[in-house]
Amino acid sequence: MYAQHTHTDLRPSSMTCKLRRGALAVALAAYGTFAWADETNHDGAALSLEVQTLRAELQALRDEVRELRKQAVAEATAAPSAKAAAAVQAPAGGESNDAASMPGGGQQGSPLTLFGYGELGYTRPTRDPSAATANLTRGVLGWGYAFSPDTRMAAELELESGVASSSDAGEIELEQFYVAHDINPGLTLKTGLFLMPAGYLNQSHEPAAYYGVFRNEVETRVIPSTWRELGAGLEGTTESGWRWNAGLVTSPDLGKWDPAAGSECALAPLQCTHQEGSQAKAKGLTVYGALNYDGVLGLNVGGSLYTGDVGQGQAGFAGARYQLGELHARWEPGPWQFQALAAYGRFTGVAAINATLFAGQPTPIPDGFGGAYLQAAYRGWNAGGYRLSPFARYEFLNTARGYSGIPQGLTPPDAPTTRVLTSGASLFLTPQVVFKADYQVFRGQRERNALNLGVGFQF
């Protein structure tokens, strides 16, 4: 399942950002005054007084911004309703400012908050229009409850593909179910079923939070979005703009590996083996860590690392482990947004497993898998309350690079590298309602080229 939410946004408030811009404007005005003074002979005393006034105003704004930054952290960790709805708020450095999720709730002051999102997609292969499909991709309803200003829970129930039954492709699942407690304003403990802090999409995947009708390939097939595990973790922030995560959670289970040709394991190795909190085997656990820097307005850089036992103590799988690492960056100069991500994973200790269980099979366990993408978007076209944001994304990935332990003559070829160019646009009726259209070109796989249309909303 290539499905799926988010952590609390502890960035400075919009008012803080406005004050920063105001401070910058005052600074530029002061600079202009100094330059003007060098080129004219106006009264020196009056000019000196004006400069002193501007300096005082600039310092006052700096002090106010500094104080508001402190308040932003405190408010984000103390407001019960907002924290109960953290699962739908885009994280600092989240996918796009287009997607400023605004979770709804009950009456003001109520400890109970409701939120959710939905998306529909239509795809029409250009080489085989008869294969066109339309799908209610997913509908999600979430709720949060604040037990106290410092302790809260959040949960999400998701329905995929419209109908879930033994004869239908749909699924019903809990995407998140956790309790969070603020140890102090900059440190939170989370325990339960929660999302891994990997990349951009895994934690911020509401329809208005990413470009394209469908989620990108790298963050669904290399990073297994939506990737959630059972366990406990810490989240921290600093006034200098750093965010960090660390924790101990359940690991994927290689006992779920399907060696058949074209299986989900062939397409997405971790997607087919992560356990989603469903009777999860827990002899082997994963240690993870993530670090992000948001201290420069419009810039986010970060990365994360995961490692753990995937053999789960099962006969024939002893010693098997995995590692996954990713790096990401986003820069937002004015109306532009540039984003990049690279991820690489590997399995170790699998030679004996392949030799005894999967030799001669089409899809043994690969040594490595990985991919990367570059994306650019323009968010400057606004008229009548609507916003049009064109974008383009190029990505490449390979889900099977090398196989250990397979006897000579039985080794299957590496999986082909997928290269896809996606270009299109998002039309925002409001920040929470979006119409999407894009066209995808798969290099060397023309049968996959397709026109895609979609609608999404979130609340």
> For the terminal residues, how far apart are their CA atoms?
24 Å
Please state the second-level CATH architecture of the domain at 119-136 and 198-458: Beta Barrel
CATH fold annotation of the domain at 119-136 and 198-458 = Porin
Order of helices and strands: HHHEEEEEHEEHEEEEHEEEEEE
Strand percent estimate: 35-45%
Range of helix content: 10-25%
Number of strand elements: 17
Low-confidence regions: 1-43, 73-106
Describe the main β-sheet briefly.
16 strands, antiparallel, barrel
Note the overall shape: globular
- The CATH class of the domain at 119-136 and 198-458 is identified as Mainly Beta
The secondary-structure class comes to alpha+beta
Summed up, the helix count is 6
Strand neighbour order, sheet with most strands: 1-2-3-4-5-6-7-8-9-10-11-12-14-15-16-17
Computed over alpha carbons, the radius of gyration is 25 Å
Output mean pLDDT: 84
Give me a quick take on this structure.
It comes from mine drainage metagenome. The protein is α+β, with helices and mostly antiparallel strands.
